[in-house]
């Protein structure tokens, strides 16, 4: 009896205040823009590589409805690999690509409410980017094959929008979003060459910008 | 008289759920499978080596005919302006091989109405005009040449698609991925211009070769579009 009353009260309050809880999964493409797509990373003075291509992206989210038109969102995603499409320097014959993990929190505001909502979104988060390259380096009159790895962490934010199509507790959604990662600055590249490890300061002179074209399914638990 | 015929046609079309529209779309094209193979090397025998194809922008236009509220026919022309190919490890390359693609397709779309829009699946076939630009340097007989030419790889293909639409009056927003399979494995003529750079005569001559492409191409386009139904 107690459980029944509690559940009833929770549902009644939720409905009255627009409270709701949901989970979702999404996938799509992440498309680099600007310098992220056009310049790449200067690993060292002589190792310029660049042109990150688009990547597949998957992720999951939790949604918390606060009032009828506003919901909070926490999401984590994974970019499977932005291929480095053009290498200017023959000393860098290979790139293993760049993966990216954005962990974000934000809000969605429904400009059209109802079972087919259209909404705008904004939020912020923390972005972890990892790139690896293979090349040749000369040290003490010897040439080594090296593998270089660089992990770049930084805060960022996103703005976007989308629309949803409701079918019972499920909503199918399309969500394009523009992300800006504030990761311009000095970072450390670790070189593994000939059994030895070297660390080199790497200057990244631009922030990363990309657009997500995401499709998802959300499920309303409450 | 024409106005009466047009009005009658519009009335009949509306009665049967028939509608016509045009649309424009854009997005990104992601190579898949062997087209994107990240093994660092794709071989075009006997002498040419290409690289792995990267992503490209994609855009195009389409004409739509709604045959019933759920079923539409679609004719689309798209363009992938540049899939950069990596060509790593090939010291002979002066520039990365360039791949462009122009899919011309005809297909059908079946939509499941949901609220203000629909979830749809689609499929179709078409003809794919692909160009691969190859250039580099070659050494032989004490001479060095620079060369560049394009291979035209035109073949049939097919697609399957899925996505969402959102209707706002006579406009419809559409978003979804589209998987293309192009059956273009085979031999192709490669005509190129070779310029002698050493000894430096800079004389150019046209040459030709046969290139074997050992795989079929696959792409996924992730597209966003806007359609307008005028009837």
Question: What's the shape of chain A?
Answer: elongated
Low-confidence stretches of chain A: none
Structural Rg of chain B: 23 Å
Assembly annotation: heterodimer
Tell me what portion of residues of chain A adopts beta-strand conformation. over 45%
Largest binding interface between chains? A-B, 33 and 31 residues
Major sheet attributes of chain B: 8 strands, antiparallel, barrel
Strand content of chain B: over 45%
Calculate the mean pLDDT score of chain B and round it: 84
The average pLDDT value of chain A, as a whole number, equals: 84
Could you characterize the architecture of this molecule?
The complex is a heterodimer of chains A (222) and B (231). By secondary structure, chain A is mostly beta strands. Chain A has helices spanning 2-17, 34-38, and strands at 20-33, 42-44, 47-52, 55-67, 70-82, 84-87, 94-112, 118-139, 142-167, 170-181, 185-193, 196-204, 208-220. Chain A has an 8-stranded antiparallel beta barrel. Chain A is elongated, with a radius of gyration of 22 Å. Chain B is mainly beta. An 8-stranded antiparallel β-barrel of chain B has the order 1-4-5-6-7-8-9-12. In chain B, a hairpin with a 2-residue loop joins strand 6 (98-114) and strand 7. The longest helix of chain B has 14 residues, at 2-15. Chain B starts with a helix and ends with a strand. The A-B interface holds A 28-29, 31, 51, 53-54, 56, 81, 83-87, 90, 93-95, 97, 112, 114-116, 118, 163, 165-167, 172-174, 176, 213, 215 and B 27-28, 30, 36, 38, 40, 52, 54-55, 84-86, 88-89, 91, 96, 114-119, 163-164, 166, 173, 175-177, 222, 224.
Brief sketch in words of this structure:
The complex is a heterodimer of chains A (222) and B (231). Chain A is 9% helix and 73% strand.
Q: Could you list some keywords that capture this structure?
A:
heterodimer; A: 222 residues; mainly beta; eight-stranded antiparallel barrel; 13 strands; B: 231 residues; 2 helices; 12 strands; elongated
């Amino acid at each position: 009896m107690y459980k029944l009353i509690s559940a009833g009260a929770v549902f009644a309050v939720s409905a009255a205040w627009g409270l709701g809880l949901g989970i979702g999964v999404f996938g799509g493409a992440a498309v680099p823009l600007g310098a992220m797509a056009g310049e790449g990373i200067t690993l060292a003075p002589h190792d310029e590589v660049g042109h990150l291509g688009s990547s597949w992206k998957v992720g999951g989210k939790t949604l918390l409805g606060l009032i009828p038109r506003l919901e909070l969102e926490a999401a984590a995603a994974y970019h499977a690999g932005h291929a480095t499409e053009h290498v200017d320097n023959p000393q860098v014959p290979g790139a293993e690509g760049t993966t990216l993990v954005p962990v974000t929190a934000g809000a969605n505001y429904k400009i059209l409410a109802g079972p087919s909502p259209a909404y705008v979104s904004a939020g912020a988060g923390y972005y972890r980017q990892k790139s690896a390259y293979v090349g040749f380096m000369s040290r003490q009159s010897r040439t080594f094959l090296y593998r270089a790895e660089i992990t770049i962490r930084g805060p960022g934010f996103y703005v976007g929008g989308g629309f949803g199509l409701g079918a019972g507790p499920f909503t199918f959604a399309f969500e394009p979003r523009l992300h800006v990662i504030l990761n311009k600055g000095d970072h450390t590249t670790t070189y593994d060459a000939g059994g030895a490890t070297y660390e080199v300061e790497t200057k990244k002179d631009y922030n990363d910008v990309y657009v997500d074209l995401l499709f998802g399914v959300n499920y309303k638990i409450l | 008289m024409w106005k009466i015929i047009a009005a009658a046609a519009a009335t009949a079309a509306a009665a049967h759920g028939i509608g016509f529209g045009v649309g424009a779309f854009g997005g990104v094209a992601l190579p898949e499978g062997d087209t994107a193979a990240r093994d660092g090397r794709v071989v075009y025998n006997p002498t040419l080596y290409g690289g792995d194809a990267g992503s490209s922008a994609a855009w195009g236009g389409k004409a739509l005919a709604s045959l019933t509220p759920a079923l539409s026919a679609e004719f689309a022309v798209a363009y992938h302006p540049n899939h950069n190919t990596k060509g790593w490890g090939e010291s002979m390359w002066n520039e990365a091989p360039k791949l462009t693609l122009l899919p011309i397709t005809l297909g059908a779309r079946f939509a499941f109405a949901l609220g203000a829009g629909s979830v749809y699946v689609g499929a179709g076939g078409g003809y794919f005009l692909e160009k691969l630009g190859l250039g580099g340097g070659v050494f032989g007989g004490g001479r060095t040449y620079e060369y560049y030419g394009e291979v035209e790889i035109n073949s049939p293909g097919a697609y399957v698609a899925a996505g969402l639409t959102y209707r706002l009056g006579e406009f419809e927003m559409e978003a979804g991925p589209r998987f293309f399979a192009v059956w273009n494995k085979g031999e192709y003529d490669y005509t190129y211009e070779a310029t002698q750079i050493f000894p430096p005569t800079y004389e150019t001559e046209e040459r030709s070769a046969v290139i074997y492409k050992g795989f079929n191409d696959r792409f996924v386009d992730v597209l966003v579009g806007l359609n307008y139904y005028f009837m």
